[in-house]
Amino acid sequence: MNTFYKILLPALFVCCAGKAAAQHKSVKDTLQLDSVIIRESRTRHLPNISGTNIFAGKKTFDLFFDAGKANLANNNARMAFAKVPGVNVWEMDGAGLQLNIGTRGTDTHRSIETNIRQNGYNTNSDMAGYPENHYNVPFQAVSEIQIVRGSAALQFGSQFGGMLNFKIKEGDSTKVFGFESEQSAGSNRFFNSYNAIGGKVGKVSYYAYYSARTGDGWRPDAAFNSRAYYANIKYRFNNKGSIAFQFSRSDYRQQIAGGLTDAQFDANNRQATRTRNFFNPEINIPALLFNYLFDKNTTVEIVSHLLSGQRNSVQFINTANIPDTVNTSLKTFNPRQVDRDYYRGFTTEARLLHLYKLGNLNSSFTAGLRYFEQTTRRKQKGVGTAASDFDLSLVKDYGIDLSLHTLNYAAFAENMFQVTHGFTVTPGVRFEDIRTTTSGVIVNRTVPVSYKNDRNFPLFGTGLQYQFNNGNQLYGNISQAYRPFLYAAVTPADQLTIIDPHIKDSKGYSADLGYRGHFSTVFSFDLSAFYVFYGNRAGTLTQIDANNVNHLYLTNIGDGEAKGIEAYTEVSLIRSFNKTATGDLRLFNSLSYTHARYTTGSISQNGKNVSLVGNHLEGTPDWIDRAGLTFLSGHVSSTLQYSYVGKSFSDANNTLLNPTGATGVVPAYHLFDWAFNYNFLKNYHFTANVNNIFNAKYFTRRINMYPGPGILPADGSTFNVGFGLRI
Q: Where is the signal peptide, in residue numbers (predicted)?
């Protein structure tokens, strides 16, 4: 860390430390100036009970999105999640077409190790075999994000990365018809359109949106066109129950500019090495949600949803130092590789929450069942045309043609025992039964595949929480976690990676110990330590063959652990001295230190066994810090945010340099972002956003697969402005 950073962090904590005390609960300040009402939602943790879920004793966050605090028009994740310590963001593109986040040593690639949900149901493409999240929700549609760290494994599934649930806005129940719209335009021909309707008629409420986002991209040959749709119709048949039908769809087509070598990045980080590469996911999610309150103590929730869609790519796949030029013998460009996945899955989750008396104190019990079935049809390594447009047609059949099937049954139970008025103990258990089968052909359709793996196992965990009289909370938990190896571990999708045929599932556990609270409305904090044990961690190693050529080897590298601290603080600089002030200036700091290292493991290199013990876990920086200053008044809200992300390594060898750019160090970087919102004439607002104000030259990841291989440069300085109305 440079000198500026070393001075900044202690200064922020010293100025806040003397304020620590007080109540950690839902805090919403309401201001009124010139007929403009501002409801300021502070970052907070989830309540002990929400819906049919128990969150007592867990590390949680409850986020609210507001224009002026984040760049919502282009789904800027580093601003949206700025107040959650330790969120590592892979910035694949500046358009926000994918959510790529990880924490505590987990993989950021399309949030593959995080249980991503919308309104309570999963949006990951295949939770057990291919859990990448191809679905894209526009941040302008989000009212709230619920986040639970590793202890989410019991109630929501066994991922190491925890659970993240997007709650979509609902219509104004005081109106028969309401309408909102925002149109934004910016650099590189960026344009974003968000339009929604909502309201309530008798017992029926509704909300629907349509969102479109287009642009040329910051790099050449990086154009995109994205659309998202959503509709929710809820019928409340009496004061105890409701049923809702929801339909969501997202699709986009993105041109991929390709990866860079280190030399190319140093020479010109804005250059493109590919002009003919494209990516196109299409995801549809219809869902049915039933809620019923049998009595004041018993609630049942049943959610069923389908996930149907596809993932398509056409690309010239090779390392960045090999140009995509005309083949002299063919007199045309080389044929491109066509890969297509087709997803079709069905999930039902039934949950029950029961409140009861244990002695003179109230305790709570929750339990649930899950049924999940998914079929993925995977067609890869098809020989496509030599064309330059988005063309999925073939000149030679797919080299890989597989049918991948997952069947999953799960049951869980947790009980929050209220031992005293302030002390709760919440033990829990989850039982998983996962059955996966694979059939088809690989290696140019010459090798048949027939694979089956059944496993069942319990997961256990316990949460503790003590609430002091002033409202502060001391919390702690420990919970087991599990990650089955993915379909990609059975059949490699790219020519650069070799797969270990004996790869195993990953197992481990996660633990937290923290203290959180509020002091009136002027100071809030959440300080914690964590430990994650990640056994049989799957990852990539760099190997050199007899011809001195680099290859990547996917295997169980060894056991890893991530331990460290996460600290969030926010202080109201004006209201600290004048609690009746109508405006405010807020300073927040979100800091994490993650010591993520291998504790076992070795690799044979050039005939020698090289230990991996002490090496950094892939893609995990030691330090991540995001600090911001937010100004609030009757009409204006604006945030200036600083981000620092430390260096990380892209493979378990901790390779320093690879001529292809596919592995090596990801250097530390510093960024500044700005968001602004101005409300006027009651129903209108104006927004302005600048990403990467000082045009920092950086990247967040190297990659050996789509959309690289090589360095994927992050966007330089970009901006957008928008005009919106709400009636």
A: 1-22
